[in-house]
Amino acid sequence: MKQLSLPLKEIYPIMAETIQNGGEVYLTVRGNSMSPFLQDGRDQAVFVSPDKMTIKRGDIVFYQRDGGQYVMHRVYKVEKDGLMTMLGDAQWTLEGGIRPDQLRAFVPRVVRKGREISCTGGVWHFLMKMYLWRIRFPRTARFGLRVLSFVLRMKKRIRMA
Predict the structure, then answer these.
(1) CA triplet 38, 42, 45: central angle to 5 degrees?
(2) Rounded CA separation 100/130 (Å)
(3) What pLDDT, in 10s, does the model give residues 45-63?
(4) Which end of the chain has the least Cβ crowding within 10 Å, N or C?
């Protein structure tokens, strides 16, 4: 697979056309707002069309702010009127009022250290929902993440034995 290193403003038209035609676009993550789960320059996000997707809490989406800036964050909340509240994994400030027409892509999976990981179900999605709890229930989230971390360490030890 050929890799290009261009500013997003320059490649977005090609990216948008590919996504609208049902294709997938792999982009290397830039920035630290999704740390520690997605690392700048190391991991890739897979972008697909958000059409026909039911966006829910914990999903990762790529959207465009009213000022023109492109952002990839996690959905913190979806209101009944369709407005969404977003949150970067490394952030504590919620960004509300994101309209469905601002969505440019949905991220169904990521490539982390060369391995594809689904973002729409399983352990990864559960971990991310727990991570989002840090805003609403900081103590509960810390406890849940500690328990999950312990379980994963034990599972790894059992596999190694």
Answers:
(1) 55
(2) 24
(3) 999 999 988 998 888 999 9
(4) N
